[in-house]
């Protein structure tokens, strides 16, 4: 069952995600980035799909965390200010703090945007943006960019199931590698055919028309959410103004 967060207007969730990401990237210290990252993770926890979303996070977070700690702390360390001895190897605490700041920014970016994408149907998100004046061409580009990975995965699963029904055996790593060859060809050809079919469908549906299309679905919005979005946008402007003033003052 959708949670209260899942039922929010798409623009409300998107505005909240943008504010979190801006706060993480504007912040120059860990003291601000840590609570901002925790806020993005709590946003994920507020969703009814939190378990499904959280299962994907290690795939995003672990590689970037390990690589940044190795690069900044071991392979290319900064000047050894406030050195730390870890297993007898001197590491710069400033370098590790810099790596931690980058990791927190990346985690905030992934958690905030991924939660919005997973809890909001793509069509509803694009409809909400189009109702605010987004050009149809940009709407289509964003829609295709968000749908390309799920569409390719569904097509790859269908091709793999068809080949397995015809005798393809996948039991080990070498057999999986061999299965890539007969999988790539139909996948690429199917993607090209799909592009042609989409272009024909767009022409038949008067994609180049200047009038706005009539939507069958109506997005439910409220005055409270409108006020919340306005407040978040004002907060975003305040964050940018504070950042500019701090740099100018320094």
What features would you describe in this structure?
With about 250 residues, the chain is mainly alpha-helical. It folds into two domains: about 10-120 and about 230-250, no CATH class; about 130-205, no CATH class. It contains eight helices and two strands; from the N terminus they run H-H-H-E-E-H-H-H-H-H. It has helices at about 10-25, 30-45, 50-75, 95-120, 120-130, 135-165, 175-205, 225-250, and strands at about 85, 90. A two-stranded antiparallel ribbon has the order 1-2. A hairpin with a 2-residue loop joins strand 1 and strand 2 (about 90). Helix 6 crosses helix 7. It is globular, with a radius of gyration of 23 Å.
List keywords for this structure.
single chain; 2 domains; 8 helices; 2 strands; mainly alpha; two-stranded antiparallel sheet; 250 residues
């Amino acid at each position: 069952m959708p949670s209260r967060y899942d039922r929010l207007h798409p623009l409300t969730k998107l505005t909240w995600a943008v504010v979190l990401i801006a706060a993480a990237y504007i912040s120059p210290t860990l003291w601000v980035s840590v609570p901002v990252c925790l806020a993005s993770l709590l946003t994920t926890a507020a969703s009814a799909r939190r378990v499904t979303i959280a299962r994907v996070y290690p795939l995003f977070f672990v590689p970037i965390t390990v690589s940044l700690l190795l690069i900044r702390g071991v392979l290319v360390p900064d000047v050894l200010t406030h050195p730390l001895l870890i297993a007898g190897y001197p590491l710069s605490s400033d370098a590790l703090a810099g790596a931690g700041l980058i990791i927190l920014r990346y985690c905030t970016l992934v958690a905030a945007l991924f939660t919005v994408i997973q809890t909001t149907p793509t069509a509803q998100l694009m409809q909400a943006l189009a109702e605010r004046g987004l050009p149809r061409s940009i709407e289509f580009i964003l829609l295709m960019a968000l749908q390309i990975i799920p569409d390719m995965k569904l097509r790859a699963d269908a091709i793999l199931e068809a080949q397995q029904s015809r005798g393809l055996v996948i039991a080990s790593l070498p057999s999986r590698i061999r299965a890539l060859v007969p999988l790539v060809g139909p996948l690429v050809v199917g993607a090209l055919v799909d592009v042609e079919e989409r272009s024909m469908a767009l022409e038949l549906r008067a994609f180049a028309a200047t009038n706005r299309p009539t939507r069958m679905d109506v997005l439910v919005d409220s005055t409270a959410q409108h006020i919340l979005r306005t407040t978040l946008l004002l907060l975003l402007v305040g964050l940018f103004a504070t950042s500019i003033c701090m740099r100018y003052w320094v």
